[in-house]
Amino acid sequence: MIKQAILIIVALVTVFYIVTNVEKEEYDQQTCTDRWKLGDVQKVNSGVGKKVLVTGAAGFIGSHVAEHCVKLGMQVVGIDDLSGGFPENVPAGVQFYRVDIKDQVAVDKLFEKHPKFDYIYHLAAYAAEGLSHFVRSYNYRNNLVGGIEILNHAIKRDTTVFVFTSSIAAYGSGEPGQVFTEDIKPNPEDPYGVSKYAFELDLMAAHDMFKMNYIIFRPHNVYGPRQNIADRYRNVIGIFMNNLLNGKPMTIFGDGQQTRCFSYIADVAPIIAKSPLMPGVYNHAFNIGSDIPETLQTLSEYVGEVMDAPSNLKKAINLPPRLEVNHAEASHGKLRCAFQHHNVTGLKEGLKLTADWVKKSTGFDPVEFSAVEIKRQMPQSWVTPELKESPFIIHTHMDNKRLSAKDIESVDSL
After folding, report:
1. Which terminus in the chain has less CB density within 10 A, N or C?
2. How large is the greatest C-alpha to C-alpha distance in the chain, in angstroms?
3. What is the pLDDT of residue 24?
4. pTM of the full structure
5. Are the beta carbons of 230 and 364 closer than 8 angstroms?
6. What does the alpha-carbon distance between residue 282 and residue 216 come to, in Å, rounded to a whole number?
7. For every residue of 73-125, which 3-state class applies, written as one string?
8. What distance, in Å, lies between the first and last C-alpha atoms of the chain?
9. What is the Cα–Cα distance from 287 to 70, expressed in whole angstroms?
10. Strand stretches in 124-195, DSSP E
11. 208-245 burial string, b = 16+ CB within 10 Å, else e?
12. Is residue 3 pLDDT above 50, yes or no?
C-alpha cells in the first residue's frame, strides 16, 4: 500500500510539473521562436472570402474541419469519394462533389471548374492502421498517390499553403517510454504510417523545389460525433460502441494494457481549420490531441458506462494480441506555443458527448472489405468465410452499404 501511495504521489508531481511548464510555454513568443523556430504566432489573418478545398469532407475529421472553415468565413469546396463518408456529414455552406482523389481525370475536372484555391486541406485517407498490412497497394494508392494528384495542382496553381493531416503512426513505436516530439525523426512500422510519412517528405521536397508552403498535423485516436462507428477495422472507441449497440461484447487484442491518448474532435478540427491564417506556423509539423494516456482496458470500462451497457457486457473480452504499437504518447508543447491551445476535453466528457450522438443516430452499417491483398496473418476476428484474396482492391461508394441510390444522386460528381 505504501509503495502504491508513493507511485501515485510521484505521478501527480510529474503531471503537475508538466502542466506548469506547459503553461509557461503557452504564451511565450520567445520560446516559440527559440525552441520551435516558429514565426510570429500572434499574427492571425482573416479567413473571410478565402477559397479553400477540403478533401475527405464527408468523412469524420474532414467534415468538422470544413464546418470550422465555413465559420471562419471561407468559401469551402469539399470532395469525398463516399467510400466511407456520408453526404449528411457535409456541413451547410460547403459546395460538395463526389470525387475520388485517385481518379486523375476527375481531379483535373475539379481544378478546371475551380482553378484557384487559397488553401487546401488534405484529409482524405483510408485510416486503418492495422488493416494496412493486408491492403498494402490500396493503402498507398489512397494515402500517398491520391494525395500527390491534389498536391500537383496546388503547386501548379500557386496555392498559398497545403495543410496535411498526417498521423502519429508516422513515428512508429519509438523507444520504451518515449514521448513523441516533433524533432524526433519518424520511423513508421506499418504501411499506413509509411504512407503518411512519405507524403510528409514529398511536401518538404515540394517546398524545397517550388516554395510550396505546408502545415502538417499528426493527430492521434480522434473520436466524436460523425465518425462511422461501424467500421470494424479502425477507431477502437467506435468499435466498442458499435459492439454494445448490437448486443455484442467489447473485444481487445492482447491484455488491454496498451495505452493511447484519445482526442476529442472539438480539440482538433478548429486548430487545423485556423492554421493557414497563421503564416508563423507555415512549414512546420505539429502533434495534435490529448496528453493523457489511458489503457484500452480503462477505456472499455468508460465506454460501457456511457453506453449504459448491461452487466454481462460491461467487461471486455481479451483476444490474442496482434502486431501493433503498445504505447503511443505525444508531446503538444509546440502546438500550445503556436496556437495557445490548452482546453482539452476530458475522456469521460468526450465519450459522453459521443455516446449521446450515437444513441440519437441510426443506420450504422458495417464497413467491410470483401477482399484483401494478403490474408496471411490477419486477425481471425477479421477473417470471414466470404473474404477473398485479390491482387487489386477496389473499395468505392458502391461498397458503402449505408448509401442509397438517392444519396448518390443527391451529390454532384465530376
Report:
1. N
2. 70
3. 37
4. 0.89
5. yes
6. 9
7. CCEEEEEECCCCCCHHHCCCCEEEEECCCCCHHHHHHHHHHCCCCCEEEECCC
8. 66
9. 24
10. 161-165
11. eeeebbbbbbbbbbbbbbbbbbbbbbbbbbbbbbbbbb
12. no
